[in-house]
Amino acid sequence: MSATALVLAAGEGTRMKSSLPKVAHRILGLPMVEYAIRAAREAGCDRVVVVTGHRAEEVEALVHGVTFARQDHRLGTGHAVMCAADALRGATGSLLVLAGDCPLLAPETLAELIQSREESNAACSLLSTRLADPAGYGRIIRDAGGAIVGIVEDKDLADDQRAIDEVNTSTYCFDIETLFAHLQRLGTSNAQGEYYLTDMIDIFRREGLAVVGVEAADPNEMLGVNSRVQLAEAAGILQRRINVRHMLAGVTMTDPGLVWVGPDVVIGRDTVLEPMTFLLGDTSVGERCVIGPNARVSDSRIGNGCVVSDAVVTDQTLTDGASAIPCQCE
């Protein structure tokens, strides 16, 4: 069955205290929204639609190979989906909806979310997780039998609901035709006066339509970036994920906490990365190299057996056995 992704990236992000749109902030060289797009594609989505709004042209210039929809007046997540109706016209099957400010979602988790909806033929499958401190997050409401019956936003919680630790990650997979057949039933009778996409769960349940859930084992996946502090937290988690992947593939890092590797970088076996090394952009490093300390390499090709220390290498090619110690090669 086909799957389409809808990435919500229209917000301003006032808590970032920045002139940049929130999703344009970079993590390891890539704009935040690109991580959501890549995760959706790797999860099996053959088409991606991105909803933009605040400084839309800047966001749209950052990513390629997607369709854009505009949300000029930001009236909630449900409204964002409404704004994408024309861009999604004619689509069938699954619609994966995810936020452009959640760069830690794993493709495997998103694929499981799509699979759960399709196998159960449900109107919606939602992604949840459990938090020791759920304050600030919408809670998943279940009936006595464990079935999902709704989502209540933090501002709208009753006192007896605040102890619920299962929270909404704002990541969903809908049957696209069922979603748009019911989307206009959303209202704005909530604390924010917005169209909450979360209200679709209650609408589906009242119609007798199935809603299922997938619980993410790693709460880090749901981390949204709303401030510079959270941006740094997300960058640290991605840094560790990428570094572990390379070390398991045969790369040595003498201090992984002081090595930053972009998601597109390729590194050969038996290469050593010393502290304060940055490998970014479209960079490849061969086997048996020593990179660092104090090295920054971007958009470059480094051959086998090379040494780069106390150097900046940008858009260069180093042949096998070459050294850059120290230099300014630009």
Account of the 3D structure:
The protein is of the alpha/beta class and 330 residues long. It is 22% helix and 28% strand. It has helices at residues 32-42, 56-60, 77-83, 107-120, 176-182, 199-206, 228-248, and strands at 3-9, 26-27, 30-31, 47-52, 67-70, 94-99, 124-130, 139-142, 148-152, 166-175, 211-215, 252-253, 259-261, 266-267, 272-273, 277-280, 284-285, 290-291, 295-298, 301-302, 307-308, 311-314, 317-318, 323-324, 327-329. The strands form 6 sheets. It has a 7-stranded mixed sheet with strand order 5-4-1-6-10-7-11, sandwiched between helices. It starts with a strand and ends with a strand.
Low-confidence stretches: none
Q: Please tell me how large the radius of gyration is.
A: 22 Å
Strand content: 25-35%
How many β strands by DSSP?
25
Cα distance spanning the termini:
48 Å
Number of helical regions: 7
The helix fraction, in percent, is: 10-25%
Biggest beta sheet summary: 7 strands, mixed
Query: Strands of the largest sheet, in order across it?
Result: 5-4-1-6-10-7-11
Mean pLDDT, as a whole number? 94
Structural class: alpha/beta
Large-scale geometry:
elongated
